[in-house]
Amino acid sequence: MGSCLSSDYLLEPGKSHVERILLNYEHKVDDPGVYDVQAIQTLAYARGDLDPSGSMNNNVNVREVLHFRVDENATPDGSAIQALVGQLKSDAPAVRREAARALASLAPISWEDLLLSFAQAP
Q1: What is the pLDDT, as a whole number, of residue 79?
Q2: End-to-end CA distance of the chain
Q3: 67 and 22 housed in the same domain
Q4: Half-sphere exposure of 110 (CA within 13 A, CB side)
Q5: Could you tell me the pTM of the whole model?
Q6: Are 32 and 70 in contact (CB under 8 A)?
Q7: Closest listed residue to residue 47, CA positions, set 101, 10, 90
Q8: Do 52 and 2 belong together in one domain?
Q9: Are the C-beta atoms of residues 28 and 49 closer than 8 Å to each other?
Q10: What is the DSSP string of 34-85?
Q11: Domain tally for the chain?
Q12: Strand, helix or coil at 33?
């Protein structure tokens, strides 16, 4: 769930919702080494049969610690990058946005003009 009521959604029983956060979009995590990241999200919730605008008084705090290692010998996975390029033409705005952010976070500065050209492509 986002930070405003316009992004609230009804989560049906047995269903799930995934939101991805690119760790390297706003943080430098490309140097070789071991990283620990603590992710915390406060989610407001209300029963589905109530009007969310007046019933979002309940919160649940979600907290997770992620441990990962950046290998100094790692190389980009060409098939993963190609999949992201393909997602730039998705009908779903969230998919396009995530792909663009992922590509921008992976790309060297020399790719800037190429990436900006994707914004102009139909």
Answers
A1: 85
A2: 30
A3: yes
A4: 0
A5: 0.53
A6: yes
A7: 10
A8: yes
A9: no
A10: EEEEEEEEEEEE--TTS-HHHHTTEEEEEEEEEEEEE-TT----HHHHHHHH
A11: 2
A12: strand
